[in-house]
Amino acid sequence: MTDLSQLDERRLAEGLQALPQLDPPEHVWTGVRRHIRPRWWIPKPMVTSSLAASVVVAAMLPLLVLSPLAESPGQFVAEEPTTSDPVVSGGPVAAEAAKENGLAQRPLTLQQSLESVPRIVREEDPVQVVLAKRIASIDATLQTRNELDREAMKQLIKQRNDMLNAYMQVQKRRDSNALLYASY
Amino acid sequence: MAGIHGVTIEPELVAQLVKGDPGAQDLVYRRMARPVFTMARRVLQDSEIAEDVTQDTFVDVFNKVSMLKDPASFVGWVRRIAINHCLMTIRSPWNKRRFPLEDEESIEGTQQDRPDMAMDLEAALQKLNPRTRAVVWLYCVEGYTHDEIGEMFNQTASFSKSQLNRALRRLKEQSDEQDAAEPRLPRAVALWT
User: What is the pTM of this model?
Assistant: First the structure.
């Protein structure tokens, strides 16, 4: 029995240590296993070197390069439909307006092109979300620097820089794409 | 109940972890998940967030154990990763919107929502600001010094001491308020049996 009004550091510590431990639900362990990087097929140097970071960036390159190509005006011209009676969404008024603006031949391809742009450009960007989470995770590890050797620290910092650069590249693409869409 | 530092993990088990042995991962998780989850749950006062912190902690541990310099310091390393995830959650803009760090009154106000509940330490903890709660837990349960806690928060040791004193003061005030609200209850309140 203890009186809270007479609480001191020692009593508080004893009280906290006497609280029961809590079990995490089983799905936490399931989630951990799902996210553990499988090691058996990754060569050891890839696991510990900055090559791993390079592979991540290389894997994202197609996304970074293709997304602006898919929406470039040049591609709209190349894909212009041959139909003589283009369909314009928005009814006759919109069709007339489109015709006046010289867009009568484009609506279908424009729509198709917009749909072909990966979701990452138009909405919340999952690549950035993943990168931000990994950067935060590296930061958490770096804060345990006393436990890490010098080489591991250097590799982590390099990985972090690579991911930050990739993040900024995606952001840059998104900004320029937003400007491009605004011009339509 | 001991904190995370009370767990023992043998260096041989850490060596198995480095090799990616699923059995070793399972064993380490079974030994360490309870104290990690307990700390996260007590500090953050939210089961779902504590589950996320526990999951992120072990994912980091298993993916980065090969970078650990000294296998003997494994438990301390895991504890530090878990604490960092808790602190990142407390510092996150989303959490700050839920519990403005400087606005303790808004949290203390919840006491009136549960007038019939006997005051215990767990309920009292819940009424503290998350940052104060973290300092209390790290000092009283995990055994960190004020200097170490100050460093974790990018502050000085004085910050940790003042947060602890503030927590003690608040807990005593809550006890007084509880007595005033329910005069028929005995003044002495059981923290634990």
Answer: 0.56
